[in-house]
Amino acid sequence: MLSKPQKRISKRGLTVWKISGALHSLIPFVLAIGAIVLAFIFDWPMWIIGVALIIFALYAYLAIKVFPTVRWKRWRYEVRENEIELQHGIFIIKRTLVPMIRVQHVDTHQGPILRKYKLATVTVSTAATVHEIPALDLEEAEELRFFISNLARVAVDDV
């Protein structure tokens, strides 16, 4: 039996996910402000304002503090000679094995927030789907992309 993957993503990835959670929290914030404005305009009961604020605060706390921390703690990966193993999830832990022989190509990409923190995401494409290893240090991501592509090339040559 294979051991669980041991490599973690960058600790700076946690900061990126918290920023992303804060940006996603803007939607419930706007909805809460809308509910408060409507409550004043239409003279609705004051408890609606309290409920709107509680929902926003709970969503923001989960999206900014809890989910990124749990996500970071659970994200693991391992690149072996014959496969790539990924483990991630918040409520349900998912472990995926990607055989090297199935790898078609490997990419790295960065958005503006990842670029600011010198991070990149490695995507591994197979015929069926795309797997990603998020928030790796930029140098590590480039090395991993090169390493996986070389292993995939060797695996294809062996067939």
How much strand content do the residues show?
15-25%
Helical proportion, percent range: 40-55%
Distance between the termini: 24 Å
- How many extended strands? 6
Question: What would the average pLDDT be, to the nearest integer?
Answer: 94
The H-and-E topology, N to C, reads as: HHHEEEEHEEH
Strand neighbour order, sheet with most strands: 1-2-3
Low-confidence blocks of residues: none
The helix tally amounts to 5
Largest sheet: 3 strands, antiparallel
Instruction: Indicate the structural class.
Output: alpha+beta
Query: What is the alpha-carbon Rg in Å?
Result: 21 Å
Shape: elongated
Characterise the protein shown here.
- By secondary structure, the protein is an alpha+beta fold.
- Helices cover 52% and strands 23% of the residues.
- It has helices at residues 12-24, 26-41, 47-74, 112-116, 138-158, and strands spanning 76-79, 83-88, 94-99, 105-109, 119-125, 130-137.
- It has a three-stranded antiparallel sheet with strand order 1-2-3.
- Strand 2 and strand 3 form a beta hairpin.
- Helix 1 (12-24) packs antiparallel against helix 3 (47-74) and helix 2 packs antiparallel against helix 3.
- The radius of gyration is 21 Å and the shape is elongated.
- The two termini are 24 Å apart.
- The mean pLDDT is 94.
Brief overview:
By secondary structure, this protein is an alpha+beta fold. The chain is 52% helix and 23% strand.
